[in-house]
């Protein structure tokens, strides 16, 4: 039985695979995958998650729009959101944080960094 | 008669005087007796107190080591305890050091696992399809998202021997990607020698003249193209160890995946049957 649940919204199957691998290192964390922002909203309508990780640059609905929608949703507005993107500039980081993202990770992602950030936001003690 | 009366009167006075002197004496005697009794009582109380003090002192002395032998035993015990304390402190330091080493090793293993995951995902990305576009997209994603390359190009041999031409690129204009002869510049040298080139930093304008890395791509022992990285993403300052492993993987698998997908598309675009395999085995 999983103690925590995580939604990964990422259009690249390769990045999803890497994120799922990284998150599998966290005990009792169930991961659900979504292909883009719209698919992410669909998954959010069906379940409540403890944390959401989303890419910024995605077709159909990008990560920033998704964060906006999440923050205006009564059910999910308090769910921690981690943004993942190739953009490394301070402006992009601030934009994401202003929209309500809790943390920002730039690509290429490092699994230990993802694990540490998710644990921090879920208040999971390190093993 | 008168003389007798005079004699009687003198006697009476003497008796009276003696009586007074006796009373004074008795009074003084009792007063001194009372004072002496008081002193005796006070002395008695003082002696009782002193006796109690000596009793208590004696009791304390009884509790103390009664001989040199006992003292020696106590000192020996003290030495033993001191040694145990030092031993425990040493073991604690050793345990703390061991724990630190294990923590470092655990971190290292986590990093190695993450690197292996990157390589696994990269390999999966290249070989999970026989569609040329999907393979090309896979190579692009690998370079951009795993290596952190901002601008790059993939060159393949043209129909003319020893000449390379670009088939996919990112972050650089196609007009800046000329055909390259074997041995020409850094890119051409990588094709000629088959050796991977990695620069410590970008030394000139973005282009084939000053690449950051050139990775020859092989099919079996034959070099059929090169991957050229021009720039890294802003947040990625330099190549890290896993990048060199990714370069090895790309060098060995990217061309195989591309060639396999191209041949599959050119052929019947269906998986070969058992007879078709047996003909070749």
Key structural traits:
heterodimer; A: 127 residues; alpha/beta; globular; B: 281 residues; alpha+beta; 6 helices
Identify the strand order in the major beta sheet of chain A: 2-1-3-4-5
Instruction: Give the radius of gyration of chain B.
Output: 57 Å
Which stretches of chain A are low in confidence, meaning pLDDT under 50 for 5 or more residues running?
none
The sequence of SSEs of chain B as H and E is: HHHEEEHEEEHH
Largest sheet of chain A: 5 strands, parallel
How many strands in all of chain B?
6
Give the H and E element order of chain A: EHEHEHEHEH
Measured between the Cα atoms of the first and last residue of chain B, the distance is: 189 Å
Description:
The complex is a heterodimer of chains A (127) and B (281). Chain A is 41% helix and 20% strand. Chain A is globular, with a radius of gyration of 13 Å. The mean pLDDT of chain A is 90. By secondary structure, chain A is α/β, with parallel strands linked by helices. Chain B is an alpha+beta fold. Chain B has six helices and six strands. Chain B has a six-stranded antiparallel β-sheet, sandwiched between helices. Chain B starts with a helix and ends with a helix. The model of chain B has no long low-confidence stretch (mean pLDDT 89). The chains are: A alpha/beta (127), B alpha+beta (281).
